[in-house]
Amino acid sequence: MNADVLVIGGGASGMTAAIKAAETGADVAIIEKKEQMGKKLLTTGNGRCNLLNSDRSPKHFHSSDPKKACEMLDALSNKDILDHFAVLGVLCRETEGYYYPYSNQALTVNQAFNKKIKELGINVLTGCEAIKIEKKAKGFKVICADRVIDSKTVIISAGSPAGLNIKEKYTGLGLLDGLNIKTMAFSPALTALLSGDKCTQYWSGVRCEALISIADRGEVLRSEKGELMLAPDGISGIAAYQLSHYVKDGCCCLIDFAFDRDEKELFAFFRSQSSRTLQDILEGMFALKLAKTLCMEVCFRNAVFKGIKPYEARLDTDEKIKAAISTVKEFKVNITGLRGLGESQVAKGGILLDETDENCMIKKCPGLFACGEILDFAGDCGGYNLMWAWTTGIKAGTAAGRYAL
């Protein structure tokens, strides 16, 4: 089998790249090891497919080369990407800065990609796994489990190990063996924060709105408001996921469980409830498990409650009130790490961005392009990882098609 452009991987970026390459007039083929293209795309945004975000602040982009990541994303505007979707026949809507297909269904986007791929005559081989890429005098030889494909150019869009179950093996970076391309080992991102603190044993199953910050040696690195899911081994939920990019040895989280009340308001409220036990007061503010956890921690962490059993504690002095407020609004949780790649939405690591030029071509290996998750980039929740997929897919596909012709 021969092709002008061979795309390895039929995910969001791979399908985008294939379409853009075919639009140049190149003969394009896609190989996808799964039985269906765009399978991961169907689950994005809880099935709604958050395509883009109007906030392009660099704080939402994470890479070992953040400057290059921003430059690559700036190559295309949101309008450029929305124009691409218009050509596919997908109408989009913007809601509070988040862009979705008008249908609010990821299936709409996946179907549009597959229809366009069929319309352009792109050859699709599913259930076909690439094993190795070999550079020839002219073009490339891609060795698969059941065939060999010769192609003038190759676009590697083999994703990352994020979200794979334990039975699945990620082999994307292994395709590059022998090509002298610098890569970084993948590590988890957008996943739960782990902790060995005893408090996590008591709050398991609680969902709550809170302000959560991650700090390192007293310096707050980032804060997020949103729903937390308190687990027996740590903290989950989108707000926690956003902080996962900053986890390092010795860091901790500070949680404000009453972020919409200032200390003066809480002081007045706690003082007005002085006839009740601390646990009763907290049960009027929080879910039962969380109230009991906070009650225990207020008593264990503050000397003014020494010798007092948590269920008997009362806020009968200003010092006790201040201690309770401090615990509720700055609840410290030591972070020991992150859940594994299999439970991550995305992964950090991959092909270093400096290995690529402005068109996502590998500088050391002309004719070889890369796009999507296999590149060293991980965005926040909120459409940023798909923004990366569309941008790099468009750039790589267009450039590869022109290179091949």
Task: Describe it.
It is built from 10 helices and 21 strands. It is α+β, with helices and mostly antiparallel strands. It folds into 2 domains: 245 residues, FAD/NAD(P)-binding domain (3-Layer(bba) Sandwich), CATH 3.50.50; 146 residues, no CATH class. Strands 1, 2, 7, 8, 9, 10 and 20 form a 7-stranded mixed sheet that branches. A 7-stranded antiparallel sheet has the order 17-16-13-14-15-12-18. Helix 1 packs parallel to helix 4 and helix 1 packs parallel to helix 10. The radius of gyration is 25 Å and the shape is elongated. The two termini are 18 Å apart. The mean pLDDT is 96.
Number of strands: 21
**How many whole angstroms does the radius of gyration measure?**
25 Å
So, the CATH homologous superfamily of the largest domain?
FAD/NAD(P)-binding domain
Please summarize the sheet with the most strands: 7 strands, mixed
How much of the sequence lies in strands comes to: 25-35%
Average pLDDT figure: 96
> How many individual helices?
10
Uncertain residue ranges: none
Give the % helix: 25-40%
Find the structural class using helix and strand composition: alpha+beta
Number of domains: 2
Based on the coordinates given, report the CATH architecture of the largest domain: 3-Layer(bba) Sandwich
CATH topology of the largest domain: FAD/NAD(P)-binding domain
**CA(first)-CA(last) distance:** 18 Å
List the helices and strands and how they pair.
Layout: E1 2-8, H1 12-23, E2 28-32, E3 52-53, E4 61-62, H2 66-74, H3 78-88, E5 92-95, E6 98-101, H4 106-119, E7 123-126, E8 130-135, E9 140-144, E10 148-156, E11 183-189, E12 193-194, E13 206-216, E14 219-231, E15 234-236, H5 238-243, E16 252-256, H6 263-272, H7 278-283, H8 288-301, H9 318-329, E17 331-334, E18 337-338, E19 346-351, E20 368-370, E21 378-379, H10 384-404
Helix pairs in contact: 1-4, 1-10, 6-9, 8-9
